[in-house]
Amino acid sequence: MIEAIIFDIDGTLLDSVDLHAKAWQEAFAHFGHKIMFEDVRKQIGKGGDQLMPVFLTEDELERYGKELSEFRGRLFKQKYLALVKPFPGVRQLFETVKAHGQRPALASSAKADELGVYMRIAKIEDLVEVGTSSGDAEKSKPDPDIFQAALDRLGKTDHGSVVAVGDTPYDAQAAGKAGLKTVGVLCGGFPAEELKSAGCIALYAGPEDLLQHYDESPLAPGK
After folding, report:
1. Rounded-to-integer distance, Cα 221 and Cα 223, Å
2. What's the pLDDT at 223?
3. Residue 114's pLDDT is what?
């Protein structure tokens, strides 16, 4: 019996992956690192603690990693946040979760102040029961900390009654380490093969597709 569903946000509910990738690319360039957009995009879904070590040495991280991360955060808010839009069907999907007597939660690598903004953009702030962000986890995805924090706030010890929904392999890997099954959505731009390899048990085009097939999906209460 599925009692709760934990959603990722970026790329799952909101069309923001390219925008985050651009902000990171510009931030790296500001600190002297020319990195291809596609290389950065492949890492979106991780938090900065996991993303930056892919491109920076330990010495570089020590010298200006924190400054780079903060620069990226300011840049995203100033230049890209206003461009973030929800995918079709997000609010209706959350309304359906609630109508089935299930509890919707969020588990995002975003910062806490960004989380509230994202919920307003998606028009789901009145429907979300639990929201966890990077501040609730020692390590971001693909480590399981954020999903575990959401489970703790939901009061769930029976992980079989909870399903995760995400758009990246890092969501599936993190959820799997927390003992959860993951439903994948393709709207974040990651290949279906990568999501399946990471552990996704079913794939949908996006929130609207998942909504249309809800009662046959792994999210359905009786599944």
Report:
1. 6
2. 61
3. 85
Alpha-carbon Rg of the chain, whole angstroms?
17
CATH number given to 4-15+85-216: 3.40.50.1000
Q: Please report, for residues 50, 92, 166, 206, the alpha-carbon distance to residue 218 in angstroms, rounded to integers and kept in the order given.
A: 29, 17, 13, 14
Return the SS3 of 40: helix
Model pTM score: 0.95
Give the start-to-end residue ranges of the domains of the chain: 4-15+85-216, 17-83
DSSP secondary structure code for residue 160 in this structure: G
Structure tokens at 182: 């993951």
**Taking the domain 17-83, which CATH number applies?**
1.10.150
pLDDT tens by residue, 107-159: 987 778 888 999 999 999 999 989 998 888 899 999 999 999 999 999 987 88
